[in-house]
């Protein structure tokens, strides 16, 4: 009995030492620097809880019970409630308190040729993954991502647009900066404002500030936006295949989303109505017989599959993937390669 107790105690000490070592590596890898010992102890405790959550999920993945894996990432020292309050800035409640602009309804084309797989990254339409930081500005990143893509598709011009411009300047349209907003309101602001500045001219700060828009720094504009029928995944598929990337809102509140790593994300606890995160839909496909939507996030390339997630497709609008989707109307003919190179 004594031998057994000693062995058990040794295993416990080994586990504690390994956990401490993993946390040390985590701090080093993501350059974590805590302001006090008490804060570090708390972060270490949260890290261990998240490690257990991820490990148990991945055991289910190995047994074939779920279709996606998780991994500890740069968010691993954040409690799920803190994570939600910090990163999920899509605020659908604004629709109830503000007069949200109406978009043009998307019209189904029965003669449209729909490809089996679409990935707008392969066409050069998608800008690199960005990082919203500790600011609930996902709605701004979703908006600029769509504007960047449609500007490229219509004008042949690649441009990185300013999320900070939207954060600081679209308050009169009902958006609340780092406290949340709506993509449709961002598109409306850009239309009425005759443009949005480039990221180079108006760089991201990750906090609310005064509006510093300058007309001579405009990188793109729009003429309104088109809305996709709510909950209609077939219309969503046609729109992204024939028109280009879409701004969409999803429920990302489950801790499983925080640590998504690879595979096709299906979360039975997801809501199709309580949406809290704005992202960019860039395509769709099939992986291991699992149909998915290809989604670009704004939590850096350290999250997910280099900043992307594959979300379950045709699974009863899981996580509200098709509940609130839209894309900006960018007018104007495609520039020649010479004009495009001169303007860049």
From TrEMBL:
<dbReference type="GO" id="GO:0008234">
    <property type="term" value="F:cysteine-type peptidase activity"/>
</dbReference>
<protein>
    <submittedName>
        <fullName>Cathepsin L-like cysteine protease 1</fullName>
    </submittedName>
</protein>
<keyword id="KW-0645">Protease</keyword>
<keyword id="KW-1015">Disulfide bond</keyword>
<dbReference type="InterPro" id="IPR025660">
    <property type="entry name" value="Pept_his_AS"/>
</dbReference>
<feature type="signal peptide">
    <location>
        <begin position="1"/>
        <end position="19"/>
    </location>
</feature>
<dbReference type="Pfam" id="PF08246">
    <property type="entry name" value="Inhibitor_I29"/>
</dbReference>
<feature type="domain" description="Cathepsin propeptide inhibitor">
    <location>
        <begin position="23"/>
        <end position="83"/>
    </location>
</feature>
<keyword id="KW-0732">Signal</keyword>
<dbReference type="Pfam" id="PF00112">
    <property type="entry name" value="Peptidase_C1"/>
</dbReference>
<feature type="domain" description="Peptidase C1A papain C-terminal">
    <location>
        <begin position="114"/>
        <end position="329"/>
    </location>
</feature>
<dbReference type="InterPro" id="IPR013128">
    <property type="entry name" value="Peptidase_C1A"/>
</dbReference>
<dbReference type="InterPro" id="IPR013201">
    <property type="entry name" value="Prot_inhib_I29"/>
</dbReference>
<dbReference type="GO" id="GO:0006508">
    <property type="term" value="P:proteolysis"/>
</dbReference>
<dbReference type="InterPro" id="IPR000668">
    <property type="entry name" value="Peptidase_C1A_C"/>
</dbReference>
<keyword id="KW-0788">Thiol protease</keyword>
<keyword id="KW-0865">Zymogen</keyword>
<dbReference type="InterPro" id="IPR039417">
    <property type="entry name" value="Peptidase_C1A_papain-like"/>
</dbReference>
<keyword id="KW-0378">Hydrolase</keyword>
<dbReference type="InterPro" id="IPR000169">
    <property type="entry name" value="Pept_cys_AS"/>
</dbReference>
<dbReference type="InterPro" id="IPR038765">
    <property type="entry name" value="Papain-like_cys_pep_sf"/>
</dbReference>
<comment type="similarity">
    <text>Belongs to the peptidase C1 family.</text>
</comment>
<dbReference type="InterPro" id="IPR025661">
    <property type="entry name" value="Pept_asp_AS"/>
</dbReference>
């Amino acid at each position: 009995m004594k031998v057994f107790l000693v062995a058990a105690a040794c295993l416990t000490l080994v586990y504690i030492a390994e956990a401490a070592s993993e946390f040390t590596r985590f701090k080093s890898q993501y350059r974590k620097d805590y302001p006090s010992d008490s804060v570090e102890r708390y972060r270490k405790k949260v890290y261990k809880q998240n490690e257990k959550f991820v490990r148990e999920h991945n055991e289910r993945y190995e047994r074939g019970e779920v279709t996606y894996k998780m991994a500890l990432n740069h968010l691993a020292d954040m409690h799920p409630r803190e994570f939600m309050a910090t990163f999920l800035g899509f605020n659908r409640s604004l629709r109830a308190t503000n007069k949200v602009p109406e978009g043009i309804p998307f019209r189904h084309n029965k003669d449209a040729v729909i490809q089996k797989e679409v990935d707008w990254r392969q066409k050069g339409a998608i800008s690199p993954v960005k990082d919203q930081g500790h600011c609930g500005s996902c709605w701004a990143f979703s908006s600029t991502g769509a504007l960047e893509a449609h500007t490229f598709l219509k004008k042949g011009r690649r441009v990185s647009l300013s999320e900070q411009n939207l954060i600081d300047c679209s308050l009169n349209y009902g958006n609340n900066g780092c406290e949340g907003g709506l993509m449709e309101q961002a598109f409306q602001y850009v239309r009425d404002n005759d443009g949005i500045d480039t990221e180079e001219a108006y760089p991201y700060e990750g906090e609310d500030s005064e509006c510093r828009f300058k007309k001579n720094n405009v990188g793109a504009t729009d003429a309104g936006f088109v809305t996709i029928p709510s909950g209609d995944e077939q219309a969503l598929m046609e729109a992204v295949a024939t028109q280009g990337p879409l701004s969409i809102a999803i429920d990302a509140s489950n801790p499983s989303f925080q640590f998504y790593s690879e595979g096709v994300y299906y979360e039975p606890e997801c809501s199709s109505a309580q949406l809290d995160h704005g992202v960019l839909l860039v395509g769709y496909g099939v992986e291991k017989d699992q149909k998915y939507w290809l989604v670009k996030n704004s939590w850096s390339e350290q999250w997910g599959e280099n900043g992307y997630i594959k979300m379950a497709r045709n699974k009863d609008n899981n996580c509200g993937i098709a509940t609130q989707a839209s894309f900006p109307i960018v007018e104007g003919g495609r520039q020649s390669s010479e004009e495009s190179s001169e303007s860049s």
